[in-house]
From TrEMBL:
GO CC term (a single one): cytoplasm
InterPro entries, per the entry: CAP/Cytokinesis_protein, Papain-like_cys_pep_sf, Transglutaminase-like
Protein name: Transglutaminase-like domain-containing protein
Domain Transglutaminase-like stretches: 378-451
Biased composition (Polar residues): 64-84, 131-154
Organism: Zopfia rhizophila CBS 207.26
Pfam families given in the database record: Transglut_core (PF01841)
Length: 654
């Protein structure tokens, strides 16, 4: 992705959007129009069904009363450094002045002349100017019984159109209800909901209207405000790093970058403009029903590694930073997370958004000019070092109603050199920042948005965006092999140990672990910590450990099926060896049951000291994709057909 345009561009854009809004509605800029269904109900009876001869425009007015669910007001609260913004006091609830109503219809059966085509123009303009604003904010109209066909005004959303009121009517004079097809839609939506793990509202937002007649789902509407005010402020404040930039932990550049997600959804405004209908932010389906369909704590389906995150991932891609109306953290948090009832999905949407929209600030990092960041500044510039990523993640998470903390500590990332046997253990020093966030089932999950976003490759090489979701899904114990928190309460281990010692952490990779290339997990679904032998150096002559050595690795989780959860059918995996004394190179296929790959080899056949032994995936055979090829097919073609290989892991012979 190209460098984002300077911040000024987005502010001009947002101002234009604001001007457009002012043309459309009267309320003072910044004032937060308040509205609730309760208020609405007290002012007028529930809208009766439209008479059969009534033009559709009448229905459209029904939906323009949708309340706004967000404010574009600038954030007044600014805090230093990296902290999330504290909860804002609630904006005064001033009901904006209403425009004159159309003449009453009590004296006539005729509908009044339609003012209203105007509304559709308005809505089109809003879409043009602040497309991303309107998308999620809308959809509330799908709650309305009559709005099924008024999606245009619905998508304009923003709630700013409420000044056009439906004319008064007298229910007793209206003809009986025409038959509706609405009742069938909720059933479909239900079925869809139960079939997927993440919120299906992304996939089929229009299929979600919940029980229309009674409008039961309304409480959801208050969420954003409540979340702002009831926020548990558990955020830990860490001082901005002041140390040498070079010691900041970064993802190891030795990892071969895995390919960018092939399914990454469109990022450009044009693409998102043409895509799916707006997310029905407020028209949430019955939460109880959704939660009932979710895996219970500890259930098989609660495994993050094989969970389908396409919903939050696709949604996060719809909010390119350059198109945001402002750097308002609360607004962005609401947009990104509201469609998802699951805390895990909310957190994932934030994690993914950071990948798409924040680049590592290699300039400041290598230039030693890192300055403390604020969440707003990170949103505006799209640049951050680890503490900027972590600070923005927690700021967004807290605004979204999640509990989250920024954790500072020591990472084994860019610049980390494993100890050699006998090396002294240096004292603990902070050089990295990451997060913990409370996901479903009350579980505290460690995540590293910075390492999950891309690769720092060096001072003179451009930053490489590269989505690495395993920094979201990795279990906390494995995470703890590369992240040591400065606060003892931030280990969040799941193996029953409250913490590990600094010595244990540093000694974990003494002598260096084998090299596992970046493609292992995303491309092949193999767990990086499952490889045997675990350490990098293998002795060709090792009388103590016998003449035969076992090579083995395992899928990333017990439920993993690469065809279903990964990128397709598995490749044949082979071990590249040098042969006795390194004189007979060979490619030996692993045995596998689909979950575990294993092979026993005589040490002397591995090669000569100084050579390498590697695991490769056989990616092509005779130019054809190698996915799904069996071991016996591989054997029959070995030596007869050209083959392509992809690196998975590597050891060195000594
Ligand atoms: Zn799993």
């Amino acid at each position: 992705m190209a460098e984002p345009p300077p911040g000024s561009a987005s502010s001009i854009k947002s101002r234009i959007a604001a001007l457009n809004l002012e043309e459309v509605h009267a309320p003072a800029p910044g004032s937060r129009p308040t509205y609730s269904y309760e208020q609405a109900a007290s002012k007028k009876a529930r809208p009766p069904p439209p008479p059969s001869q009534r033009p559709h425009a009448q229905q459209r007015q029904q939906s323009v009363n949708n309340p706004p669910i967000h404010s574009n007001a600038p954030t007044s609260t600014r805090q230093p450094s990296n902290q999330p913004i504290a909860a804002k006091p609630e904006a005064p609830k001033s009901q904006p002045a209403l425009p004159p109503r159309p003449p009453s219809r009590t004296n006539t059966q005729q509908a009044p002349a339609l003012p209203p085509r105007k509304t559709s123009e308005q809505s089109v303009r809003r879409r043009d100017s602040t497309e991303s604003v309107s998308t999620v904010a809308s959809g509330r109209s799908t709650l309305s019984a009559n709005s099924a066909k008024t999606s245009v005004s619905g998508t304009s959303g923003g709630g700013q159109l409420y000044q056009v009121r439906a004319p008064a009517y007298d229910p007793s004079k209206l003809p009986p209800l025409p038959p509706k097809k609405a009742p069938e839609e909720p059933k479909q939506a239900r079925a869809t909901l139960k079939a997927t793990k993440t919120s299906p509202s992304i996939v089929a937002p229009r299929a979600l209207p919940p029980q229309l007649p009674t409008r039961p789902a309304l409480p959801a509407r208050q969420d954003p405000k409540e979340q702002e005010n009831v926020q548990p402020e558990k955020t830990q404040v860490i001082p901005p790093p002041r140390r040498s930039a070079l010691s900041f932990g970064l993802n190891k550049s030795t990892e071969t970058p895995p390919p960018v997600l092939s399914t990454r959804p469109g990022l450009t405004p044009t693409e998102s403009a043409g895509t799916p209908p707006p997310i029905p932010l407020a028209s949430r389906p019955n939460l109880d029903a959704i939660m009932a369909s979710k895996p219970k704590p500890g259930a098989l389906g609660s495994c993050l590694k094989c969970r389908d995150f396409s919903g939050p991932d696709n949604h996060a891609a719809r909010y390119p930073r350059q198109n945001l109306p402002s750097s308002d953290v609360a607004w962005l948090a609401t947009q990104l997370t509201s469609p998802f009832p699951s805390f895990t999905d909310k957190a994932r949407a934030l994690f993914t958004w950071l990948h798409h929209n924040v680049e590592y600030d290699i300039h400041s990092f290598f230039g030693g000019t890192i300055s403390p960041s604020t969440p707003e500044r990170t949103i505006t510039t799209g640049l951050a070092v680890c503490e900027g990523y972590a600070g923005l993640f927690t700021a967004l998470a807290v605004k979204a109603g999640l509990e989250s903390v920024v954790i500072s500590g020591r990472g084994k990332g860019y610049g980390h050199t494993p100890l050699k046997p006998g090396d002294p253990i240096l004292p603990f020093k902070t050089d990295h920042a990451w997060n913990a966030v409370r996901i479903d089932n009350g579980e505290w999950k460690l995540v590293d948005c910075c390492w999950g976003a891309g690769n720092v490759q060096g001072p003179h090489t451009p930053y490489e965006k590269n989505f690495k979701p395993y920094w979201f899904t990795m279990d906390n114990n494995e995470f703890g092999c590369s992240h040591f928190p400065s606060d003892n309460s931030h280990f969040y281990r799941t193996d029953g140990r409250a913490s590990i010692s600094w010595e244990e952490y540093m000694l974990d990779d003494v002598g260096e672990r084998l090299t596992v290339y970046g493609a292992a997990t995303p491309d092949h679904g193999i767990g990086a910590r499952t490889f045997l032998p675990a350490m990098k150096h293998i002795k060709v002559n090792d009388p103590q450990n016998g003449p035969v050595i076992r090579f083995q690795f395992t899928s990333v989780c017990p439920h993993w099926e690469n065809e279903r959860h990964g990128k397709g059918k598995p490749y044949v995996m082979v071990l590249h060896v040098g042969g006795r004394d390194g004189r007979k190179t060979d490619w030996l296929p692993f045995q596998t049951d689909g979950k575990i790959w294993w092979m026993d080899v005589n040490r002397v056949d591995l090669g000569a000291p100084g050579q390498k032994v590697s695991v490769f995936a056989v990616t092509t055979i005779s130019g054809e994709d190698g996915r799904g090829v069996t071991v016996s097919e591989y054997k029959s073609k070995k030596g007869r057909a050209a083959m392509g290989f992809g690196g998975v892991a590597m050891w060195e012979l000594v």
